[in-house]
Structures are given as C-alpha cells and as structure tokens.
C-alpha cells in the first residue's frame, strides 16, 4: 500500500483527534492525522485548543497563581512567612509555555510510537472517491477510506467587538497577558471567566465579571452555585449578574464596557484588559465541507448521530465540533469509540456520566443530575451532604470550604448525582463517576472502606448522610 493511502485520516490533532488516531492505529489501521496548529517558531504543536490555549496552560497558570496566593495569605498560619513576595509574570508565562511544549512533544512522540503519519498543515475535503475520500493535507493530497473530523471550536466574540488579543482577549490572549492588569474585566461568568478571573485576581488584579444571565452558574447544582458565589465574593471577585452589554470601546489606555445592570440602569466599566468568555463556536473553517456535502446545523456544528456518524458514509466527527459538552475528556471518549466502531467493535460513550470540573479555588466538580433537574423531572430522591469542615484531612490541609452532596433514588438508592465544592474536588469526583458507571447505590459507597485521613472520607460520609447516619457530623 502506498503511504498516501490511509485506512483512516483524522483532521484535527486536539484531544478528540489525536486520541482517535492513536486508538485506530492500536487497532491495526494505517492512520494519518492532520493538524495545523503552529508553535511560536512555526513548527507543529499538536494537542489542539486543550493543549495550546485551553486545559493545560490554564491549569499551569492556576497552579502558579495559587502558590502565590498561598504564600501571600495562607502560609502564615503554618508559621511560614516570607518578606517581599514577588511575582515574575514573564517567568510564570515561560513555565506555562514549557508545560505546553512538553505536551506537544509528548503527542508527536506518541504518533511515532503508534506509527501514525502526522501532517502539519490544513486538512480539507477535496471530494469523494470510490471507496473513500480525497483529502488535502497541507500541500499533499491523500486518500482516506474513513475520515474522522475533530476540528474543535473557537471562542465566540461579542457582536461589534472582535478579539484583538491586546485589549479584547479570547482564551488565547487571556493566557498570555504580559503583566498583572490593575483592572480586569471579564464578560461571562462561565468556566473560562471564573478560572481566568481567579488567576489574575490572585495575582493582584481588580476583577469585575459581567454575566448576562440572572442566575450564577445555572447548570451547576443550586447549593453548590450558592456556596461558590459566597466564596468568590469573599475572595474579591466582583460578579454582576443579569447585565446587558451595549458597547465595548477600546482606546490606548484600555477598554470601556457600557452595559445595563440587572435593574436596567446604565453603567460603564473601565478596565485595562477585557476577557470575553461567552462560549465557543464549532470550527469548520478551512475544512471545505461543501466539497462532499457534509451537513452542518444552524450553529455550524457537524451533524452527527449518537455514534458520531455524519450524513456521509465513512465520515465521522467528534469533540467540540459536534453536539454535547465542550470538554476534552468527552472529545477523547468519542475519539476512542469511533476508532473502535470503524474497527468493527462496539465503542460506547455514556453521556450521562461525563464529569465536569471548574478549577477555581475551591474546585467545583460534579457528575450526574443536579437537585433542580431531579425536581423538574419529578423524580423522588434522597440527598446527603457532608461538609469538609468536619473532615480531618481538610482541617490538616487548612482547606475546609465546601461540601460533598450525594443524590440517590428514593426507592432504589442508585446514585443519581454527586456535587462537590472543595479541595481536590476534581480528583474526588472520579470515585463518584466509577460508582455511577457501575450503577452503585449510596449504601455501596457508605460500606466501602476509605483511607483515613483522606478527603475521600467526605464522599463516604455524604453517602452515609443519604441514610441520615453520618458518623463525623
Ligand atoms: P480542539 O482541541 O479545538 O482541537 C482541534 C484541532 O484541530 C486544533 O489543533 C486545530 O488547529 C485543528 N484544526 C482545525 N481545523 C483544521 C483543519 N481544517 N486542518 C487541520 N487542523 C485543523 N476541557 C476540559 O475537559 N478540561 C479543562 O480543564 C478545560 N479547560 C479549558 C480552558 C480553556 C481556556 C478553554 C478555551 C477550553 C478548555 N477546555 C477544557 C475545553 C477543551 O479545550 C475542548 O473541549 C477540547 O480541546 C476539544 O477537543 P477537540 O479535539 O474537539 O478540539
Ligand atoms: P461557558 O458556556 O462556560 O460560559 C459562558 C457564560 O457567558 C455563560 O454564563 C453565559 O450566560 C454568559 N454569556 C453569554 N453571552 C453573554 C453576553 N452577551 N453577555 C454576558 N454574558 C454572556 O463558556 P466559556 O467560559 O466561554 O467556556 C467555553 C467552554 O469551554 C465551556 O463551556 C467548557 O465546555 C470549556 N471549558 C472547560 C473548562 C473546564 O472543564 N474546566 C475550562 C474552560 C473552558
């Protein structure tokens, strides 16, 4: 077989695409992956939004800024003090860039290890050919029996205020602000707004977040959202709900946002930088879907069925470019499942138990249904809640904010949702996902031995609380 004929061609090398390519190669297929992301030197930087301007760099900055905040505000109670604590933003950004590069290099290594042919450049449909498709891969044209599209998403701009990445910042610009702004504005109190707002607040910026909806974190369990609002306010994040943005104007000195507040009163906010994080739009720029008649919906997302099949035989799509939550792990699971389906196996993604994490401090994590969803469905449920304040490990950590809340079916006791706000919620939620995947009851968790002292005992105690028999609260 010529090297230009592939069983599978994956367009896009983010978490959806690169994982699909690796899994397809593991299953014995001849695979190519095309990705156009360039590093600062113009070289390849596979890993997509997640690796380059998303999950990984944001977590690097969250970590650096958390160290700074701890040194400034929390270490004294441990008897540790330091004079003249400084933040070198350039160094912090350089470390973040290094973390990104390590991930880029890791993916290139994995392609080699799994014999995936990598093309650095744009991938686009040329046309259908008998038994497959012709795909432009950079300057070359290659043949594919099956195509997996994983072209991701882009930040949505406010109408009339395009990103200039100097004053009006998308996630890209928000991750490389060269020095702590005195005043930072954020439009959208969603995941990016809260994570990036937290980074720059910890480093000393005065942060104002303007949110269009009248409720805070509407998709999150109400109890958790209420606790989060209280804590973020105490930390100094000024979150204004129910606003309507009317105009965004840039000048040499910064940005002015004109808006109506929740009462309809005209207000204006002057900031040095403005992060606009109001959601993302599926990306098919340059893919040339028209050449083959690939169907898109009104949002520009590629139309797929539950198994990620598009309207075209042998063309699949996964990740942010299709329906469903825009999360890296969701994209990866879809990528694996599609590769397995192509190989004739029965890949499966359980959309009901995809975990969510917001990496603020405290972290917020959940899986399954919220209390408000269960109420709306009229489903009878029992709730158990345990505060970290009553957990020995949390006290030793000096991080007792928040709680674990478990929701279980009133009759069968099957766990329907778990909602956590507190230390290492991102790690604690994994046990709950496993439990739900195995259809565990709250009693199952309550009867499993958890290490002491550990934060995970709070999950066990929340399970005990479902049956009103917590031991430590
Ligand atoms: P992408 O990661 O967007 O990758 C698509 C790739 O395809 C890109 O490299 C792009 O250049 C390439 N491409 C597009 N078109 C073409 C073409 N025609 N030819 C060649 N290449 C092309 N999710 C989490 O789960 N956890 C987090 O902590 C998290 N943090 C985030 C933080 C931020 C600031 C942002 C913006 C997002 C975050 N996300 C997080 C979301 C996550 O990044 C996405 O859900 C994930 O990257 C989607 O993966 P994907 O493979 O579908 O697309
Ligand atoms: P988001 O959907 O999380 O939040 C957008 C917010 O902006 C919403 O609260 C919305 O009501 C508000 N909004 C929309 N239009 C507005 C307007 N005109 N004026 C004021 N407010 C407005 O989107 P975000 O934060 O941009 O992130 C995009 C996606 O990236 C997330 O949905 C998530 O899928 C992914 N992501 C995941 C992370 C994680 O898993 N930890 C971290 C960051 C992003």
TrEMBL record:
It is found in: Cytoplasm. GO terms for cellular component: cytoplasm. It comes from the Bacteria. Its main location: cytoplasm. Disulfide bonds join 50-55. The active site is a redox-active disulfide bond. Residues 354-463 form the Pyridine nucleotide-disulphide oxidoreductase dimerisation domain. Residues 6-335 form the FAD/NAD(P)-binding domain. Its EC number is 1.8.1.4. Its cofactor is FAD. It is an enzyme of class 1 (oxidoreductase). The active site is at residue 452. The keyword Chaperone does not apply. Gene3D superfamilies: 3.30.390.30, FAD/NAD(P)-binding domain (3.50.50.60). NAD(+) binds at residues 188-195, 211, 279. Belongs to the class-I pyridine nucleotide-disulfide oxidoreductase family. It catalyses: N(6)-[(R)-dihydrolipoyl]-L-lysyl-[protein] + NAD(+) = N(6)-[(R)-lipoyl]-L-lysyl-[protein] + NADH + H(+). SUPFAM superfamilies: FAD/NAD(P)-binding domain, FAD/NAD-linked reductases, dimerisation (C-terminal) domain. One of its GO terms (molecular function) is dihydrolipoyl dehydrogenase (NADH) activity. This is Dihydrolipoyl dehydrogenase. FAD binds at residues 59, 123, 151-153, 320, 326-329. The gene is lpdA. Keywords: Cytoplasm, FAD, Flavoprotein, NAD, Nucleotide-binding, Oxidoreductase, Redox-active center. It comes from Inhella proteolytica. GO terms for biological process: 2-oxoglutarate metabolic process. The keyword Oxidoreductase applies. InterPro entries: Class-I_Pyr_Nuc-Dis_Oxidored, FAD/NAD-bd_sf, FAD/NAD-binding_dom, FAD/NAD-linked_Rdtase_dimer_sf, Lipoamide_DH, Pyr_nuc-diS_OxRdtase, Pyr_nucl-diS_OxRdtase_dimer. Binds 1 FAD per subunit.
């Amino acid at each position: 077989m010529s090297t230009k004929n592939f069983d599978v061609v994956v367009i896009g090398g983010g978490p959806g695409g690169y994982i699909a390519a690796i899994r397809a190669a593991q299953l014995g297929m001849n695979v190519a992956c095309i990705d156009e992301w360039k590093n600062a030197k113009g070289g390849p930087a596979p890993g997509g939004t997640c690796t380059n301007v998303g999950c990984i760099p944001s977590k690097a900055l969250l970590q650096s800024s958390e160290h700074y905040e701890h040194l400034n505000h929390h270490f004294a109670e441990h008897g540790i003090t330091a004079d003249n604590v400084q933040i070198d933003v350039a160094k912090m950004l350089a470390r973040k860039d290094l973390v990104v590069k390590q991930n880029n290099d890791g993916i290139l290594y994995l392609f080699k290890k799994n014999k995936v042919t990598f093309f650095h450049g744009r991938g686009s449909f040329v046309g259908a050919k008998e038994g497959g498709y012709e795909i432009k891969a950079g300057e070359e044209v290659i043949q594919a029996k099956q195509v997996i599209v994983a072209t991701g998403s882009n930040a949505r701009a406010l109408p009339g205020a395009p990103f200039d990445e100097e004053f009006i910042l998308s996630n890209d610009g928000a991750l490389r602000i060269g020095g702590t702004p005195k005043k930072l504005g954020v439009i959208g109190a969603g995941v990016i707004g809260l994570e990036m707002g937290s980074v720059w607040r910890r480093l000393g910026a005065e942060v104002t977040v303007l949110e269009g909806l009248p409720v805070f974190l509407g998709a999150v369990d109400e109890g958790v959202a209420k606790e989060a609002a209280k804590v973020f306010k105490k930390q100094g994040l000024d979150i204004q709900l129910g606003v309507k943005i009317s105009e965004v104007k840039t000048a040499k000195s910064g940005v002015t946002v004109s808006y109506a507040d929740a009462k309809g009163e005209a207000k204006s906010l002057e900031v040095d930088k403005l992060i606009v994080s109001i959601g993302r739009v599926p990306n098919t720029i340059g893919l040339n879907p028209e050449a083959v008649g690939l169907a898109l919906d009104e949002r520009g997302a590629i139309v797929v069925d539950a198994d990620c099949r598009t309207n075209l035989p042998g063309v699949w799509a996964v990740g942010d470019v299709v329906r469903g939550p825009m999360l890296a792990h969701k994209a990866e699971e879809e990528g694996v499942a599609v590769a397995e389906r192509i190989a004739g196996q029965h890949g499966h993604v359980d959309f009901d138990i995809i975990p969510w994490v917001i990496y603020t401090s405290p972290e917020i994590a959940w899986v399954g249904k919220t209390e408000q969803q269960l109420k709306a469905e009229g489903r009878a449920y029992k709730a158990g809640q345990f505060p970290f304040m009553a957990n020995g490990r949390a006290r030793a950590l000096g991080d007792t904010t928040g709680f674990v809340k478990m929701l279980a079916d009133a009759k069968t006791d099957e766990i329907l949702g778990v909602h956590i706000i507190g230390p290492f919620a991102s790690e604690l939620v994994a046990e709950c996902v496993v439990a739900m995947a195995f259809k565990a009851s709250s009693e199952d968790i309550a009867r499993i031995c958890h290490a002491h002292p550990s934060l995970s005992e709070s999950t066990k105690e929340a399970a005990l609380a479902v049956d009103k028999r917590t031991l430590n609260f």
